[in-house]
Amino acid sequence: xxxxxxxxxxxxxxxxxxxxxxxxxxxxxxxxxxxxxxxxxxxxxxxxxxxxxxxxxxxxxxxxxxxxxxxxxxxxxxxxxxxxxxxxxxxxxxxxxxxxxxxxxxxxxxxxxxxxxxxxxxxxxxxxxxxxxxxxxxxxxxxxxxxxxxxxxxxxxxxxxxxxxxxxxxxxxxxxxxxxxxxxxxxxxxxxxxxxxxxxxxxxxxxxxxxxxxxxxxxxxxxxxxxxxxxxxxxxxxxxxxxxxxxxxxxxxxxxxxxxxxxxxxxxxxxxxxxxxxxxxxxxxxxxxxxxxxxxxxxxxxxxxxxxxxxxxxxxxxxxxxxxxxxxxxxxxxxxxxxxxxxxxxxxxxxxxxxxxxxxxxxxxxxxxxxxxxxxxxxxxxxxxxxxxxxxxxxxxxxxxxxxxxxxxxxxxxxxxxxxxxxxxxxxxxxxxxxxxxxxxxxxxxxxxxxxxxxxxxxxxxxxxxxxxxxxxxxxxxxxxxxxx
Length: 485
Description:
alpha+beta, 10 helices, disordered C terminus
């Protein structure tokens, strides 16, 4: 994409973003620009010192408290701006949860207890906070950019699997893929049975990681002739993922050589296998357990990439399910799950660089508004990267000749025709080169907005309302004087 086309796309995105902001739109829009241009976000009030934020620091908190964002319109806007390199590739999306820790906010409502890999509470890797579930588009280009298209807060009483299924179905309704079923990749924290049941009948593929110690069962017809007495058999031969002697013969196999993993072998022949479901809707009713069938995929690699080779590689078990009559694409499955970790890097960038979890807001609705602003800022960085050229020092590693920028922060350095630092986060300086802005300038002392404002009396057009308001003030004064007397 040419730099002029990239800036034109960015300008269109910014105008559409402003239309998604309703109440306190100007303050919310300038807050997004302040997030883009700030070197760090120690606290939200520091963003009011940035040049794009032309209003007072009080408007920042008022926008987070009483602003209004059309989340559905913003989801549609993000879906209309996919990754640039994914046009001729199979659409792949990652689904995962990231936690906003609020351990000390005991008065904040709707907090839950969630797993956290680095922070502990009473010796356990559990934190109290708000959990947000993201859907992000992945790319197979050698970079770590993703395109978040949806985010939703998971309340403590909700099931993340059910929320994920509803998010995926809503996304498919907003952006239907013609002639192809998009692939959604989930980590091991999701229940493949619940996800598949929630997406039953949807034109999509799901790929869920499994624990290595799971057990599955084949069709009961493979277990021999049925018994003459007793109830009919519901489970066939047992397959243990940890015991290769119980594995059936594969019917499909794919092998390749990878620069990072060496020899890669992918096998997917274990179709129509099902686990014994324990947590289901009819639990306790003494009814039959649901049978949910899928295809198991086994991925084996020769070695781990550079930096992790001191560990021995382990096998990877995946649960795949697609539309009726479709077969798994083993090459796509192997590459898709390896790219799922780009979403983890996106979470780190949102938290450490854009300050997603920095504000100590009290109410979850305020956290929702801040989350949408951070996601919109990240989308603008991704769209602006094509308009900025990266100049590396002679001894720094060059990945390719395209000059693509990566979403990481780096030491300050001038590059290209724009003012900024080395990496794509400083591409936000190009916002100042865009002609025109969508938001209105702040009001000066004694200035008022032209026209009628919602929620304000038209005292200059209706004298009766002015007299009514004056009468109310006089009555209030009389009541105060009478009370004091």
